[in-house]
Amino acid sequence: MAEIKFHRAGLAVEVRGLRLRLGDTQVLRGVDLHVPRGAIVAIIGPNGSGKTTLLRCLLGLETPDEGEIRLLGEPVGRKVLSRVAYVPQRLQLDRNFILSVREFLSLRLQAAKGWMWQGHRKTDEQLRGALADVGVESLFDRPIAGLSGGQLQRVLIAFSLLTKPELLLLDEPTAGVDNPGERSFYELITGIHQRLKLTVVLVSHDLSMVYRHATRVYALNGVVCCEGTPEEVMNADSLRQAYGIHVTPYHHDHPPGHHHVH
Amino acid sequence: MFTEAYMQRALLVALMLGPLCGFIGVFVTARRMSFFSDTVSHAALAGIAVGFWMGFQDPTIPMTLVSLGVAMLMLWLREKTDLLNDTIMALLLSGSVAFGIVVMSLLKGYRGELDRYLFGDILSVGPVDVGLAAVVVAIAGGWVLWNLNSLALITAHEDLAHVSGISVRALNYAFVILLTVVVSLSIRLLGIILVTSLLVIPPATARNLANNLRQQILGSIAIGALGGFGGVAASFLLNLPCGPSIVLVCVGMFLLTLASRSLLRLGRRQSPAP
């Protein structure tokens, strides 16, 4: 018993038998996942494989039909989520909303505390520091709406790191970013990972970049069909069978009304 | 102009509701809820008709209650059915207007009242409305101020807000209730047809010149106050309907800020970059 407890405490993410049906589609069909603390894990899969849905379950944004999820040893809830950070797909941020980078970041510090943000010198220093950590200090007073994709991505990461999380979850972080941008992004993430000693879980449809940086890869297709080191997953026959990476192009086949499944 | 009791009441209400609408409007526009607020205001017509039918002299209460009912029905339909948002709102909007007009035409002697509620009338602002406005400004303004951070984060990204520990659903419902009450109260001044403009034009005007949310909020509050005051004054001095006067003053300010923004941009483009 004591051994099991110890084992659990060593896991950043533990998922057992997760099943979720959205509309007519059984998106998750019994997912098991064990992410040790301090790892950089990539969850890969084609569109519709349920990877974003899995992430949404981890964040408490979807309630699974069956199965168990533990983050940092605790069930998903407000308490544990305060130790978790989430970097959404950057394109989902409403860019018509007039927020400066400074205002956006201060929302994280004061979220749900009901304090009107106003130039506090100490807060400003902290926010500038967070931006400097991701290499975009100069964006401090710029409106969010005017940022490039790569800049916005870094601002989102700075936002997520403000509360000193132990677990960082990223959704399709490099979707729509060009090749050099993607490389520098992964260098940034590995840098953060080493400096802050946190666990990183990123969801991606693209194995090529993940390959160089992840310590462990899970290939998802409704279930975890393949897991291991990037080399093992790349070479696994089961992966090719599951969804034919580098063999056949994937065809978009969205069932109507299932916009959460990407 | 300031000596007449009804003018004092109208100006007072305009100076309370104008800034409040400007403040809330920042979130109404950013969250694309202007059609929602339009639906809620038109639903008030059904409430007014029901109020008169039941013999109320002052239909403020039934008007607000029916609007709230329609707002909740809208949210419920959105969650429980796969009807499109637009369809739900258009359905409820036209349905309640039709219901209201049919009931009003069945009742005798209320045809004149219809105009007053459709376009707003300073004469219809009673002492009760002043008190109500004060209470609503205190509660609604205080609530939005208290939840400013959460509202801003929900507006930027709902999921991010949820993960940051904000009760997104509860806050969304509270915001809708508050918006509905503010809209119902503002109908006296602006009229059913134009009430949404006070939620939309001040924030849009402020946005022309603002660089961040704080500036937009402060600007929108100021423009709401100016528009409300200027409109009521113009309505009195020129004997114009109240709602349209307020809206025209606001539109005028919008055009001015739009022009000055364009000039600023032009100037920036012509001067060499620093």
Would you kindly provide a written description of the structure presented here, covering whatever features stand out?
- The complex is a heterodimer of chains A (262) and B (274).
- With 262 residues, chain A is α/β, with parallel strands linked by helices.
- Chain A has helices spanning 2-9, 51-58, 78-81, 101-110, 121-133, 149-161, 179-196, 207-213, 230-235, 237-243; strands spanning 11-22, 25-36, 40-44, 66-71, 74-75, 84-87, 167-171, 199-204, 216-220, 224-228.
- Chain A has a domain at 1-83 and 167-175 and 199-246: P-loop containing nucleotide triphosphate hydrolases (Rossmann fold, 3-Layer(aba) Sandwich), CATH 3.40.50.
- In chain A, the strands form 2 sheets. In chain A, strands 6-7-8-3-9-10 form a 6-stranded mixed sheet, sandwiched between helices.
- Chain A is globular and about 50 Å long.
- The relative contact order of chain A is 0.19.
- With 274 residues, chain B is mostly helical.
- The N and C termini of chain B lie far apart (51 Å).
- The model of chain B has no long low-confidence stretch (mean pLDDT 90).
- Chain B has a domain at 5-195: ABC transporter involved in vitamin B12 uptake, BtuC (Orthogonal Bundle), CATH 1.10.3470.10.
- Helices cover 82% and strands 0% of the residues of chain B.
- In chain B, helix 1 (5-30) packs antiparallel against helix 11, helix 2 crosses helix 3 (60-80) and helix 6 packs antiparallel against helix 9 (168-190).
- Chain A binds chain B through residues 56, 59-61, 78, 81-82, 84-86, 88, 92-94, 96-100, 102-104, 106-108, 110-118, 141, 143-144, 159, 257, and chain B through 30, 82, 145-150, 152-153, 155-157, 159-166, 207, 210-214, 216.
Structural class of chain A: alpha/beta
Strand element count of chain A: 10
CATH class of the domain at 5-195 in chain B: Mainly Alpha
Residue share in β-strands of chain B: under 5%
Spatial shape of chain A: globular
Task: Note the overall shape of chain B.
Answer: globular
Average pLDDT number of chain A:
80
Top-tier CATH class of the domain at 1-83 and 167-175 and 199-246 in chain A: Alpha Beta
Question: End-to-end distance of chain B, in Å?
Answer: 51 Å
**Number of contiguous helices of chain B:** 12
Number of E strands of chain B: 0
Write down the overall mean pLDDT of chain B. 90
